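Hello Y.,

Per our agreement to keep a running log of every chain we model this quarter, I'm adding this entry. I've kept the format consistent with earlier entries: sequence first, then predicted structure.
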Amino acid sequence: MDLKEIQSLIKFVSKSGVNEVKLELEDFKITIKTGSGNSETTIVHQAPMAMPQAPIGVVPIATPVAAAASEDKSEADEDSKYITITSPIIGTFYRKSSPDKPNFIEIGDTVHSESIVCIIEAMKLFNEIESEVSGKIVKVLVDDATPVEFGQPLFLVDPS
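Predicted structure for the entry above:
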């Protein structure tokens, strides 16, 4: 909608005797209010661009509290002997450099200091993430092509 169309809309609304008209299109909103004394007010709002949203995962069914507490405790004890590789940046986690390439590492692979373990895409830049520890990969904590936060655990490594 251009300026001439907006001006003609204002004139039409003021002549019609309507107090308020709201018009919403894909990329903007217009609100025209006419008050006493035939003064006209025009408010134009640009609609915000829609941001892509991450897919929502499936929530597992709750287990009984006692069983869940014991599982969490044993899992925490088990995981405490491992070193965690965390995300140094916010972005999208990828286990391989392209869809037709193999994963950088698999469970059971041995990594050394400065081995590339994954890629995190941030602002259209693909950042290679290196392992800062040596050991054997025990667990991958993040699914491929999912968003990660700064400091979020990515892998568990057995240093022995």
